[in-house]
Amino acid sequence: MTRQTGSSRRRPKSxxxxxxxxxxxxxxxxxxxxxxxxxxxxxxxxxNLDSVDLDKAxxxxxxxxxxxxxxxxxxxxxxxxxxxxxxxxxGDVGGTARSDTAMLLHIPEGRSKATxxxxxxxTLVTRPECRKEDGSTLPSKNRVMFNSIxxxxxxxxxxxxxxxxxxxxxxxxxxVDFAGFKGLVDALGGVTVTLDEPINGGKGxxxxxxGTHKLDGTDSLKFVRTRYGYKDGSDLGRIGLQQQFMLAxxxxxxxxxxxxxxxxxxxxxxxxxxxxxxxSELASLTSLADFAKSxxxxxxxxxxxxxxxxxxxxxxxxxxxxxxPQADQLWEALRNDxxxxxxxxxxxxxxx
Length: 352
What we know:
The protein has 352 residues and is α+β, with helices and mostly antiparallel strands. It is 39% helix and 21% strand. It has helices at 6-48, 54-58, 149-153, 155-166, 178-188, 217-225, 235-255, 262-274, 285-294, 326-335; strands at residues 50-52, 71-78, 99-107, 114-118, 124-127, 130-131, 137-138, 141-145, 172-177, 191-195, 199-200, 207-208, 211-215, 276-279, 303-307, 310-312, 320-322. Strand 16 and strand 17 (320-322) form a beta hairpin. It is globular. The termini are far apart.
């Protein structure tokens, strides 16, 4: 019987150790690679974001927070014609940007529903004194058109104006421009809308028959910006389309379970953050994700959409002003996180 040497007896254990070492090294390399990829993705998406420090820009001239458990988010859609946005619209506004869409999103305590209040862009308001982005001061002015405030004062001035007209503390601010909006819709694969009346936008505008349509990013942008060729052609009529589209988009996100699909979620996050500006508290992927998770209970079926009650201005019938007492009742309900009374939803100026 041949006696085994010490080295031959250790060989199986050595091979086992070597195999285990290789496996562990391979696993370590895989984890490092995944971590590196995750860090790159996080850094990439985080780097897409722009932000505005509202407290620094506005100062102390802000309302007190009344309903501490509720959240109020001002959502702006800007019509800048610069960069990638220039290819998406042919309007000539001298390269400046305006707040093409403005909604105050009120999320009550419990986060199970929400109310979206659209502010007509043609509303005449009092603009408070604002600190401009270059550090200079913009004086207060009466009877200015709401959508002009973004152009001359920037987003913080818009937030300040909404706070002064409503006496509601704005917790967060989110701005999406043309390119970002188009990218979000295309990342979803389109959004389905149903029209009870046709849209006949004329030359270069959107043409849609009454019925159901699935719109890509370009046509969705035309849809929410349609004014002429739909109902009475007013800005108030356009608000109805914007609110309808917002609910349809929320429904599409829920139906696709976008937040449960990593690939789809990344596409949405990449498209959204590329053209997104937020307040400084939301200006990170982690903060945005946490805020989105807190609103998982908000559903398109339970969201209420309201237009700020307005009346036609007596001096200039092409402009509107906040209707009272309706507007005051609306702001008071949102400020105190109570149910909006039916009387606060009736607008003398209907826009068709």
